[in-house]
């Protein structure tokens, strides 16, 4: 008997090895779903974030099943959707780094824009429009150069990066398939959300990881780009619940998911260092600005223009009123709690590295 015949819902998550994929898989499993995920082939294991959910393929009654695949491969996606016959597809896979999208714009468009189209077409080709609901991981980067503060579902878009432009296509093709073919297809316009398993090169994780390593003497300094950028930062755990809620409504609609609170990169640094027991004093301006530990006088943060973007998104602030009213959703984890959790987890990781180093093992660090 298949999981569906058992009365269980079947979900397919693209991007299951990423931050949101891992939290969403955990959430759906806890709700009794059978979860299928698409992972890319890599030369090293790339399933760190979901290893705790792994079930041996030889087990009889599995609820967590991984498949090789890629958003740039239509035949692979059609075959998987046909085989899995999901009730819900969560399209979380993407080249998700804004700065990297300036380096690899064509690939970003292929995976993030056309990848979305490929999945929607798979649903249409297989004739499962009435059965399968579709969630598209849209983003506050659509607002880019903001036209209105705070941003809502009706604020005009003005993307500022190849990533944002690719996601704009993903947004509209999702709306288009809903209107043209009656698909239950929705966009969650999610503002930045972070966690201890956030990718190490996004600014929040780069800060908590870097400062924890500085605290333990594993690294001297943290190099950052635009300290004045302002973001509406929430916790990924809260946000994946919103992704699920969006697909459980009577009618398909698009929703902004945000906290409604904004902080600068500089404030994030200050709070993270405070969590580690220190205080930062800023001196200098622009590219010459540096952050010093008040007690030791050591320079621990410096600006490196290498991390400036060709076109920056200076400020984002979401209004989650619609999600609150229609989904009954609200964020539970505060900004302070988020920073604290990230710092603590990175401190533990730094302690493990320090232990290895003290035993004579080589410990690598990446400064990207
Ligand atoms: P991550 O970068 O952590 O995860 C991205 C996932 O996509 C990874 O599993 C990655 O695989 C996979 N992936 C990348 N390219 C491909 C491809 N060509 N084919 C198949 N899989 C691929 O992102 P998040 O979890 O943070 O974000 C999830 C989604 O939400 C993304 O679409 C992102 O753009 C969007 N988003 C994120 C926000 C945030 O603040 N986190 C806010 C708004 C939107 P691998 O592990 O092999 O690299
Ligand atoms: P973002 O996240 O671009 O908002 O995209 P990121 O954390 O990369 O940058 C946020 C802001 O911080 C500034 N910044 C730096 N950023 C990085 N990565 N590294 C630095 O050293 C640094 N210094 C300053 C950036 O310029 C920017 O203004 C994330 C991704 O998860 C997207 O996939 C998602 O769609 C959006 O959030 C919402």
From TrEMBL:
Domain NAD(P)-binding: 12-342
Entry keyword annotation includes Ubl conjugation: no
Enzyme superclass (EC): lyase
Cofactor: NADP(+)
Pfam families per record: GDP_Man_Dehyd
Record's catalysed reaction(s): GDP-alpha-D-mannose = GDP-4-dehydro-alpha-D-rhamnose + H2O
Top-level division of the source organism's lineage: Bacteria
Assigned EC number: 4.2.1.47
Coiled coil: none
Keyword annotations of the record: Lyase, NADP
A GO MF label: GDP-mannose 4,6-dehydratase activity
InterPro entries linked to this entry: GDP_Man_deHydtase, NAD(P)-bd_dom, NAD(P)-bd_dom_sf
Gene Ontology BP terms: 'de novo' GDP-L-fucose biosynthetic process
HAMAP family: GDP_Man_dehydratase (MF_00955)
Function according to Swiss-Prot or TrEMBL: Catalyzes the conversion of GDP-D-mannose to GDP-4-dehydro-6-deoxy-D-mannose.
Family stated for the protein in its record: Belongs to the NAD(P)-dependent epimerase/dehydratase family. GDP-mannose 4,6-dehydratase subfamily.
PANTHER family membership: GDP-MANNOSE 4,6 DEHYDRATASE (PTHR43715:SF1), GDP-MANNOSE 4,6-DEHYDRATASE (PTHR43715)
Stored NCBIfam families: gmd
Protein name: GDP-mannose 4,6-dehydratase
Lineage: Bacteria, Pseudomonadati, Pseudomonadota, Gammaproteobacteria, Methylococcales
